[in-house]
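Training component of the fellowship. As part of building independent skills, the fellow (R.M.) carried out the full modelling exercise for a liganded target. The chosen ligand was A2H. The inputs are recorded below so that the supervisory panel can assess the work.
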Amino acid sequence: EGFGPQEYTGIKMEVAEWSPAAKETIGDKVGNRKVFLVAATLRPETMYGQTNTFVGTGIKYGIFAANDKEAYLCTLRAARNMAFQGAITPRGHIEQLVEIEGSKIVGTKINAPFAINPQVYVLPMDNVLATKGTGVVTSVPSDSPDDFQTLTDLRKKPEFYKIDPSWAAIDPVPVISTPTYGDMTAPAVVKQLKIQSQKDTKQLAEAKEIAYKEGFYNGTMLVGEFKGQSVQDAKVKVRDAMIQAGLAFAYAE
Ligand code: A2H
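Fellow's submitted model of the complex:
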């Protein structure tokens, strides 16, 4: 981090069913356009194991026209970047159809590209930064310590987080095997570092580093088209396959 642009994959997750609060805010403002939540990820090869999607409840999002047929939900900052990178057309121009708070998006059901669980719910995460990526984060609790700990917190205190427990019902899915941690790298690292909650941000940063390196350098795919291949090989192939299928695009910042 810190030097040069970060190359993300923008994952397009079509809305299958809006939460009641989102439905009310949106009304007929998006017209006939299909709406996609767009998440920024550095690990497209983990999308098989997506179990939720996270937003920040205090973050302001927009729904932006991407072209005549589609609209993207992300932060205004990300939409501007997309417009300058050509992911939103016409290049350099943005049209915001709706402004919506993260808290209202929670409970929305979306289609998760390439995932073993094809439909998942939007949930709140404390540590989503408005200043990074799109403000939307795919949850892959098998391989991301932050995602695993957030899911654990949400399951422990659904009332506190104002969620329906059924939205957090999908268990982590094994996607990548690593020699040191097995089929569930993130839960193993979280346990090893004795992390208790999302608020343990220092230990979570360390866990993220360990899990990322172990997965990238030593991981093997357990599922999908590139099963049996190394993560280093599969990463680019999964990304290209998703882009080819119209389910993702390159996003840098
Ligand atoms: B990654 P970097 Cl399986 N706020 O995707 C907080 N976190 C954000 C974010 C935001 N606004 N936007 C993206 N992210 C997360 C998958 C994943 C990720 C796995 C394992 C590790 C991992 C599934 N979540 O990231 O600061 C996204 O989570 C560890 C590096 O730009 C994105 O990739 O390095 C990652 O942080 C980008 O973090």
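The panel noted the following from the submitted structure. The first strand starts at residue 7 and ends at 17. The radius of gyration is 17 Å.
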